[in-house]
Amino acid sequence: MNAQPPTSITRTPEDIVQRSDLEIPQLLLPEPSRLFAERALRLRQLAASHAMRDYLMLLALVGEAQHARVQSQTAMVLPTLAQLDSAAQEGQPALGATGWTRDGQWRAELRALLQQVLEQLPNDSPARAAVQAVIQLPDTTLEQQADRLLAGITLGLDLAAAPLIAAGLQLYFTQLVAATGAAQLSAFPVPTQATRCPCCGSLPVTSIIRLGGQQEGQRYLYCTLCNAQWHLGRIQCTHCLATQGIHYESLRPNVDSDTEPKRPVVEAEACDSCHHYLKIMHVARDLHVEPVADDLATLTLDLLVSEAGFSRHGTNMLLLFGDDEHDTEPGAS
User: Fold this and answer.
1) Is 236 left (phi over 0), alpha (psi -120 to 50) or beta?
2) Alpha carbon separation from 103 to 73, 76, 111, 176, 250 (Å, rounded)
């Protein structure tokens, strides 16, 4: 009997969509011990020749300080089993950003990380005043600003201080989600086709097509607050879940006519049904892509898609803009 030659199988997006969900991890919890360091490194790489170099470098310092605070392993108050059960029964995220009572320790950690940033900033850096101002904010003001930030309310939000306060909230919620998930394996049930984070209820910053193992070719939404990732089928609107009228936009680099253009690492997945979009990033096209950092570095893509009449589903807490349209709509972006 002659042996049949091996057959090479290439999965199309449609094939991937049809794979059983039982094969695919529905939730990837954050790994605080490495994610902030990786983000800081990527920000430094992207800043090298970027128009937003100074800002990206500032956020790289913030990421390095977040990583340093993670290493301190501060004890955290975790949700009880009763709280987890209650949230599950109500269909709410266990650590809802706008409902969870924050431990005041987050403010101490914020000030500690910002102090480290201050020590690394050049003496003539214009960012020093903003960092120092947040360090000196009273506790009540910090909490009020955090409440507005987590609810997506820009009215009364200090937009200059917001990214720095967000860094402290990201540090707190990332560690809280990771510790809760480690203590209780079933702490975070993932609703079918969730468009918000099943851990904290926040919007995604972007989505990412992963590489390797069971996650090969799968799309995960990436939480802007706690850095958790949850599965959502590809070629599907992340806002209204439509599967028709989806198209992709990207920035096209200037290349010679004889040069084969590279496939874009970052695209905007736009929906003609609801006129929303969210960026989608491809790890297979750049192994170093990092959702938060690469989102910041492709702000021009947001501007172009917005000019075409599309609104973003999602937000990047490290770069916010005032928008009166959403001032009365908590969590909107």
Assistant:
1) beta
2) 15, 8, 14, 10, 41
- Structure tokens belonging to residue 97: 């950003």
Reading the block at residue 282, the tokens are: 């491809």
Give residue-wise pLDDT tens across range 203-262.
Answer: 999 999 998 777 888 999 999 999 999 999 999 999 999 999 999 999 876 555 555 668
At 37, the amino acid letter reads: A
The token pair that represents 221 in the structure block: 């939404």
pTM metric for this prediction: 0.88
Say which DSSP state 246 is in. E
DSSP assigned state of 321:
-
Rounded to the nearest 10 degrees, how much is the dihedral formed by the CA atoms of 37, 39, 45, 48?
A: -110
Q: In residues, how long is the chain? A: 333
| Dist. CA 158–CA 137, nearest whole Å | 12
Q: What percent of the chain has pLDDT over 90?
A: 80
Q: Copy the structure tokens of residue 195.
A: 């468009």
Looking at residue 260, the DSSP 8-state letter turns out to be P
From 96, 331, 76, 328, select the one nearest 178 (Cα to Cα).
76
Determine the residue type at 44.
R
Residue 140, token pair as written in the block: 């009540």
pLDDT tens sequence across 132-147:
999 999 999 999 999 9
